[in-house]
Amino acid sequence: MIFAGIRDLTTMTIPNWLTLGLALAFFITAPLVGVPLSEIALHASAGLALLLVGMAAFAMGWIGGGDAKFVAAASLWVGWGQALPYLLVASIFGGVLTLLILFYRNMPLPGFLFRVNWIARLHDRKEGVPYGLALAAAGLIIFPDTDVFRMVISLG
């Protein structure tokens, strides 16, 4: 989650391999820690539902394609039980992030910082907002409250 957030901040992309890895990690970890197959199916349905919602939001130009896939992979881990809190926290973080970036884009940027590609891109008003950062931060906040996370911790 941390790597995805930083990657989105610095490149405005979340690689497919990273999202796929997050999804595969769920399907490997869940059975190993004793999550029943029926519960895994419910988590998968949450991931699929959020993928469809994310694709619709992408089609409307509200979020990037990487964000749509990333929220679906994160939703596998939170399942239906924590999906609403996850999305609420991600929305709050995303709103704050957007306001901060809008403020940043209205400030003059010292010339030497324009040579740092990701800083210059983040300052460009034509660019989007690296919403993956908000999605990742929300995941880090919500994951400890999920049943899967608790089951992993109980093994240690």
Automatic annotation (TrEMBL):
UniProt signal peptide: none
Its placement in the membrane is given as: Multi-pass membrane protein
Protein name as annotated: Peptidase
Q: Which organism is it from?
A: Parvibaculum sedimenti
Task: List the keywords (alphabetical).
Answer: Cell membrane, Membrane, Transmembrane, Transmembrane helix
Coiled-coil features, chain-numbered ranges: none
MF GO annotations: aspartic-type endopeptidase activity
Q: Which domain of life is it from?
A: Bacteria
Short name of any one Pfam family annotated for the protein: Peptidase_A24
Record field: transmembrane: 14-33, 40-63, 83-104
Query: Can you give the residue ranges of the Prepilin type IV endopeptidase peptidase domain?
Result: 1-99
Q: Which cell locations does it reside in?
A: Cell membrane
Give any Gene Ontology cellular component: plasma membrane
